[in-house]
Amino acid sequence: MLIRVRCLFFRMQKVNTMSVISFSRILAHWVEIQPNQVAIVHEGDTITWLALEERTNQLARAYEDLGVKQDDFVTIALPNGIEFIAACFAIWKLGATPQPISAKLPKIERDAIIELANPSLVVGAVDADARFPSIAAQFSQYENYSTEPLQERTSKNIKAVTSGGSTGRPKLIVMPQPAVWDLDFTYFMIPHQSSVLVPGPLYHNGPFMWALCALCQGNRTVIVTRFDAETTLQLIEENRIENMYMVPTMMQRIWNLPDELRLKYDLSSLKSAIHMAAPCPAWLKEAFIEWLGPQVVWELYGGAEGQGGTTITGEEWLQHRGSVGKAIEGTEIQILGDSGQQLPPGDIGEIYMRFKENAGSSYEYIGAESKEIEGGWDSLGDMGYLDEDGYLYLADRRTDMIICGGSNIYPAEVEAAIDQFPGVRSSAVIGLPHEDLGNVVHAIVDAPDAAITEDDMLTFLADHLVRYKHPRSIEFVSEPLRDDAGKVRRKALREARIN
Q1: What are phi and psi of 131, to 5 degrees?
Q2: Is position 274 within any domain?
Q3: Are residues 453 and 366 part of one domain?
């Protein structure tokens, strides 16, 4: 089965213009079809398509009076909820671009991103940089505005998401594609007029786009404020969820539930569960395939930059264990060595991708430069290799790689082994300076409810990793090391232990 991922996540392709509709009109389209059906579910709160259309019309007029204009950026610093999604559609209705950030960012970090974005409005942060107009969360002044439709407008940029990247410095990834939707297209196995679960933080690119796709295809879209393993299973059963977004961190937390909890819920409605955003340990992937079925579990690899990607079905993965799949339709992949030479199958190097038609970049950075090279090839900095059949396998980011005594060690491989130990919730592996070896492996292990010793862990790892990849030191902590989007900031962890 071919999973079609050409539009939005990676790149806007030519579409049938008769079926294309602006984001500013998509809610009205579904109001004509299912006005009183529920559009969004959020922790006991719901909103219908008609109510969402009318509220976003009101919000758009309020934002316009606050200074939002065509093609402006608008920063959204709201937690997950109906208010977040309503703000996005109100912004699109003005022909402007949503620029979501975490509502929990420290002020200094948040203000640095806002300065990069130079928005005409900040939604959800009244203590933001005084140079930029702002309104608080739970903004209610929109209620006095008209609910009637606005003049149709289309933003030139669908989104502008934030990434700290490997440098730790914020940058914006702008998708320079018009904010339109092809009603005849199916995206990422996401159904039409069914139910979709998005349990991730909406300020991250993956959950943001998943929720957008789900709504644009007329689905009841279920979101949560914060991921909880058992609640996720309960929501699948209650809402007869047909498609869901996951990251490996979520998968591991679900798998760590006692069997009597994990198996008590009816998940028979689930037709596709697609994971992405971080490497998935092979043992965990296999466990989910055995549990949910190989036809349900899919994987997607790619970045918010959208310069290409791969997909793999559960059936394919069982034949190519550990792979993240083959190139999506229209994408090419090559592996380059340190001197820029193309490497043969099996050799680890830096992963470069491009679209076959090579019609220019699919993204723009604000605050950083891309790694695009001659021929339109581009890299996110990830390392990996291709097998003889063209399936891609990830190693780790070049900036995360640990060189110990001349040997290359990839943290993700060590973390995957550690995470198999009973009671481990998450782990992060970093390199610490060593006078003789250059760097040595240091493991930070989050196991709040387990009494694990360093000797216990090293004995376990002896059956999973060659000796030179073993941690020289292990630190046990009781706080999560990865966020709900599956991201870990190894650079920050390393700096905190060196300084």
Answers
A1: -70, -15
A2: no
A3: no
